[in-house]
Amino acid sequence: MTGTTLLSVVFLLDIKKFHNISRLLFIASSCFFILVPSVFLGQRANAENYFLAAMLLPIMIFPVEEKVKILIGVAMTFVIWFFNQFGFFPIYLNQENIHLFPFELFQKFNFIGTFLIISIFIKHYRRYIFDVQIGASDNLVESKSFQSSILGAMPSLVSFIDENFIYRYANPQYQTVLGLHPDQMVGRPIKEVLGPAIYDIIKNPMTVAMKGQRVEYESEVVTKNGKLLAHFLYIPAFNSIEKIHGIYAIVTDITNMKKVEAQLEEAQAVAKIASWSCDLNRGDLQWSKQMYGHFNRNFEEGPLSYEEHKKYIHADDYSLWESAVQKCLVDGAPYRIRFRSVFPDKILTLEVQGRGLKDSSGKILQLLGTCQDVTELVHAETLTMLERAKSIHNAKLASLGELSAGVAHEINNPLAIIAGNLDLLPRLKADPVKFEAKILTMKKATERISKIISGLQKFSRSSESRKFVHLKISNIINEVSILVESKSKKFSTPVEFVCENDLEIFGDEIEIEQVLINLINNGIDAVKKLDKKWVQVIFIDDGAVVKIQVRDSGHGIPKDIAKNIFQPFFTTKIVGEGTGLGLSIVKGIVDDHGGKIEILENESHTCFELSFKKNEGDKNEFPNSIH
Amino acid sequence: MSFQIVYIDDEPDICEIFSDLFQSSTLDVHVFTDPELAIERLKSHSADIVFIDYRLPQTTGDQVARRISKDIPKALITGELSVQPDYEFDRIFSKPLDVDEIEKFISKHTVK
After folding, report:
1. Is the Cβ pair A424, B81 closer than 8 Å?
2. From A408, which residue of chain B is nearest by alpha-carbon distance?
3. Is the ipTM reported for this complex over the cut 0.85?
């Protein structure tokens, strides 16, 4: 009876609180107290106690679930008591009974005592037997439902390693990742299970963790499946008397995540595009690595705050930035703006796209977006524009050079007429009629010179002084006809202008004239070798636009040439005959005017058709969706 | 016997001036605006000097010069800024015409 009592008391106690060694000592002393009185004091030793001890001791030592232990303990107690009642167990030691109070008393009320103890068991440990919920965190990992549902599904490796570096628990992922079944791991030292290579990686951090410190680190690991990058987390586990009894290890494969992170970073670096977000409650900015470069800042310094970063925005661009952001704060609508950020040694142009994230009530919680360094892009755009202006100017000068040869001749002829007639006049004093006639001839000649000069003056003006005005077609025709007269005569190619009504177009006079001269000259060049040579310029009224058709007696342009014809430096002329820039500049001018140029197909003769607006106004007014 | 001068220029006004300036008892001036006609005439009639304008319809003064007999002295008249004719002219005159210079040239080539 004493034995039974003692053993039951042992169960009552929360011996888990005791270290293994003290536990063993306690059990040993309990056994002593069972045996000693019997042996040395002559008390009959009940065999059932031995049986109970024999059954229960191993259960207490081996790691079996608490619930199970108790159930076995209770069951055993009952079984042994039952059999004892029927005198099943022989009397072990043939000793005189010593009726020592209170032992005798205990003996009589053996079974009552047992029942009392059992009921106390049940009272204390009811939750282990009947409840599913586990309270103590120490038992968390051991609970079957936790194991199967959560730990089994977790993509990470989860294990519990005791202070002797022996696996006490491993989740099923070990099978997938390392090819190790948890059963093969539990009870074995980690060095043996993982192998020396991996052990070398983890032993130092694990040792630190075993001293009670939470450790987190990343390391490359070589496994059967190849090289991985893993994230390790060790959480020390303390028992009820604040002593380490092991660590929880959570190991996650972050190889892919790192790869994606690295790719993203590289993509951002290559495109010079960064991502940012701003939490509106806290007012702080989150920056991707690339962003630091855009604000001339080191990665280690961390991001600027929302207020701080405003200081770097160029004063002239500030209001643009501010209004875009303000609007986004209200409706979350996406915006895209360019502004300059100013630093002591440089100025960057940034293109920022942003939008707002709303909560369920429609309030904007966060702004996020991208920021791209477009400084070089803007620089290139500016250069391109300047180059274009320059090449237009140069082409004008080149055409001017071409023209001047013909024009010099044009001026010299009337000049010769004037000079020649002046020489004649003295001889004609006697003939007043002829005298008058010569004077008239000279007058006409001077007018001719004036026209040519004024045409040249207008032509050589630079494009910076371009002005869009309403132009009368009749004026354009007059100017252009003078300037193409020379070439037209030289190549015996008449140039005819056809215009029904007095039309007007909206554009820059010089540039429009340049376009027409270029196309007419091209036409004259194109028909040089033909029998029938002519160029026609027809002006057509088409609602909001004026269509201008420049036709020549040629038979059209082959499709493969037609598609490239407006490209810069594309020319079918031999070297020295033309720069190839003409039509690309023409196209540039037409585009600047919001107009259109195309080669008409299915025409009997070559025909370039231009369209120009009659009036100023929105590009939307332009019919047939020119753009 | 008067000297024969042929003048070729596409501008009729200038032809008229040349004719008015130089036609005289000793000089017979024949003007042509069409070089082909001039060449035709020179096949059957001789001339003492031929003046040819550089800028002619569909051709140039030097091209025309090649088609005329080498024996006849030729002068090129031009209003161009710079011209490099493909022919050895005896003289090149630029417009506007310098009457004195032309007279001197005519004298030189009509002295027999």
Report:
1. no
2. B80
3. no
